[in-house]
Design brief:
Oxidized Rhodanese, domain 1; 5-stranded parallel β-sheet; globular; alpha/beta; 12 strands
Length: about 300
């Protein structure tokens, strides 16, 4: 059950084991029960047609140049997304996704550690994907590669590929939702929509996704507000609770998280999960799909 957000005194993360510290990971780097994955993907924004608001670039080259020792690389777009979708990061069918993760080495008995070098939202996207399959031994590295480097911790150029693993899949198809469920949530008093994109996109000053603005009745809580600008780590539980409390996000609501392509929204959802909220969903293709469909409503301001 979600913690009382009316008061933000001494709020703790509900699932602290799902967040690991760089120093802890460095101490565990030779522990063979741990498997570490670099989840970095880059977006290069373009002025092309809004149906293609950015080019997706692999983080493999950056991984090969420098990474956390004994970590492998996960290719989100090519290996873990539906390549037949018109959108960049559409979730594959869950049984196919499970097979892909197992082939890449995700599974028992391993504790999976996820990190990225350009924002924790890439790690949180993969975390939710694995979570939707029922595998629970997964954690996000707080601050990612940026924080690891800033602490002067070891860097490697030796690539790693893990042997396949296995786990008992328990699919939760209700975590990632589509536009029909989002449309229904707009007029549902028991639902709230949270837009994790930056304010300029939310209010309609930036037309990156085509039609300007946001899904009606949605609240803007940009994902970067949940990250400390100095350290690159998550803000404190107290500060996170205050942000959601000030927006009247309460535990009894169904919370629909969205963004541009289903990446940034996963960080808002992860922090809400850590605060104990239980009724959380993520709109998978988000504005990449919604804004391009003229039959779906948009608001500005």
């Amino acid at each position: 059950m979600a913690q009382d957000l009316k008061s933000t005194n001494d709020v703790d993360w509900r699932f602290p084991e799902a967040i690991v510290d760089c120093y802890w990971l460095n101490d565990q780097i030779s522990n063979h029960s741990i498997r570490i994955f670099d989840c970095t993907t880059y977006l290069e924004y373009t002025d092309a047609h809004p149906s293609k608001p950015y080019d997706v670039c692999s983080g493999l080259a950056a991984y090969e140049a420098a990474h956390i020792p004994q970590s492998a690389y996960l290719d989100l777009q090519n290996d873990l997304s539906d390549v037949d979708s018109p959108f960049s990061f559409t979730l594959p069918a869950l049984h196919r996704l499970a097979a892909c993760f197992k082939k890449l080495g995700v599974g028992d008995p391993y504790h999976i550690i996820l990190y990225a070098r350009n924002g924790m939202q890439w790690a949180s996207r993969v975390w939710w994907m694995i979570h939707a399959l029922g595998y629970s031994k997964i954690s996000i590295l707080d601050g990612g590669f940026h924080t690891w480097k800033s602490h002067g911790l070891p860097i490697s150029k030796t690539t790693t590929k893990f042997s396949p693993a296995d786990f008992q899949v328990t699919e939760n198809p209700k975590i990632f939702i589509g536009k029909k469920q989002v449309l229904a949530a707009i007029d549902d008093d028991k639902s709230v929509l949270i837009n994790a994109l930056t304010k300029d996109i939310h209010v309609g000053e930036n037309t990156r996704y085509g039609r300007p603005g946001h899904i009606p009745k949605s609240i803007n809580i940009p994902f970067h507000e949940l990250i400390d600008t100095g350290s690159g780590k998550l803000i404190s539980p107290d500060d996170a609770a205050r942000i959601f409390r000030d927006k009247n996000i309460t535990p009894e609501l169904k919370i629909v998280n969205y963004c541009g392509g289903g990446i940034a929204a996963t960080l808002d959802a992860f922090v809400l999960y850590q605060l104990g909220f239980e009724n959380l969903v993520i709109y998978d293709d988000s504005l990449s799909e919604w804004a391009m469909d003229p039959d779906l409503p948009m608001e500005t301001g």
